[in-house]
Amino acid sequence: MAAPFSDTAIAAFIDNEPIAAGEVRMQMRRLRAQVFDYFSRTYGAKDSPDFGNLRFLGESPAIVLRDRALDSCVRIKTEQMIARNERLVDKIDFVSFVREFQLVNKQRFQTVMQGGIIYGPVTYHIDSYFDYLYSNMMIDLQKKLTAAMSFDDAVLRREFGAYRASVSDKPLPREVLFVFSRGANARAAMESLRAACANDTSCDAACSSKDISCEKLRLERITRELIGTYGRTMAGMLLDSARILAVGKESPVFEGERGEFGFVKCLRIGDISGAAFPEYREKIREYLKNITFRSAIEERCAKAAIRKNRQVLDGLAVW
After folding, report:
1. Mean pLDDT within 14-21
2. Cα 39 to chain center, whole Å?
3. Mean pLDDT, rounded, for 253-263
4. Residue 6 — φ and ψ, nearest 5°?
5. Which H helix or E strand runs over 308?
6. SS3 call for 85
7. Which of 54, 72, 258, 303 is placed for a possible disulfide with 27 were both Cys, Cβ 3.0 to 4.6 Å?
8. If residue 216 lies in a helix (H) or strand (E), which one and from where to where?
9. Mean pLDDT within 23-36
10. How far apart are CA 179 and CA 230, in angstroms?
């Protein structure tokens, strides 16, 4: 069995920029529920103490998790390198990030001890603090790189026509009820409440408990506020669920990176099949900017030279 490595050990290089073991571990924590869901749906796998080391038609959950985490790290490091080149951030190495994280937590704790007021938790979890910095960086990076982009009305009208046709029979949900909780029995509680909500339009039974949180949300895209409130994993699951649910239907129970479990009930769906172009001109413009930005990131990732430190990576191949 490979010996464990410290978080500062170098797991890989991307264009000579190091990716630390701690960065890979962080993404492994974020993706663990997603990988379990993949093996559960694909192979009917059940959770067990040795689940990560089992093999399903040649696939190992631990190795799939590690590889997906590394892929995520490559994309994130690429984005960080671009942001540094654009002078939006100064340092992108893991050691500097941990030092800043520890300093911020120390300052927040001291402020509270001295009777001061802070927003958010007294101290951050390292994953939450990274999500906070990363989401802000990406918002600033996209804003800077797309600021000079322009699209004439002919292009916008063409894209709007294609978009309207593609969603005319599957309009995006606009309003959902998000029911969630955390704790030792949160998953079981959510499964039970989800079943109860199937026959209760407003989920009154679920929302009457003091241990359960119920929030009505209007969802069209992932925003800074959504990620900051629920974390990146939960925000993504919220939006993905909202996109496919029919009115009155509930999503499966899903897990966030902060230990909460929840599900979504679709309350109302918006329909743009009869919408006029002027109403959506700016939304389509932002959509084109977004896909152009993402394409540029993906192209940069595809061209990146990656060198893996197999010894360190093998030490991370645990569930």
Report:
1. 96
2. 19
3. 79
4. -70, 165
5. strand 306-308
6. helix
7. 72
8. strand 213-218
9. 91
10. 12
**Rounded average pLDDT over 1-5:** 58
What ranges do the domains of the chain cover? 10-146+297-316, 172-269
The band of 272, judged by pLDDT with boundaries at 50, 70 and 90, is low
Name which of 57, 133, 127 is nearest 92 in CA terms. Answer: 133
93 vs 46 pLDDT, higher one? 93
Helix (H, G, I), strand (E, B) or coil at 172: coil
For the record, the structure tokens of 216 come out as 């009505």
Cβ neighbours around 85 below 10 Å, total: 9
Q: What does DSSP assign to residue 117? A: -
Q: Are 60 and 53 in contact (CB under 8 A)?
A: yes
Query: Which residues neighbour 25 within 8 Å (Cβ) at sequence distance 6 or greater?
Result: 7, 69, 316
pLDDT of 112 above 90: yes
Cα–Cα dist 40/44, whole Å? 4
CB atoms within 10 A of CB 215: 13
Confidence band (pLDDT; 50, 70, 90) for 2?
A: very low
User: What is the mean predicted confidence (pLDDT) over 143-148?
Assistant: 92
Q: How many CB atoms lie within 10 A of CB 264?
A: 27
The confidence score (pLDDT) of residue 1 equals 44
> Which residue in 189, 76, 230, 96 sits closest to 138, CA to CA?
76
Q: Is the pLDDT of residue 227 over 80?
A: no
Burial class of residue 308 in the structure, from the number of CB atoms within 10 Å of its CB (0-12 exposed, 13-18 middle, 19+ buried): middle
Element (H, E) at 17: strand 17-20
**Reduced DSSP (H G I as helix, E B as strand, rest coil) percent helix, strand, coil of the chain, to 5:** 55, 15, 30
Helix H or strand E encompassing 10: strand 10-14
Which H or E run contains 303? helix 277-303
Residue 62: which H helix or E strand, with range?
helix 61-85
CA distance 273 to 189: 38
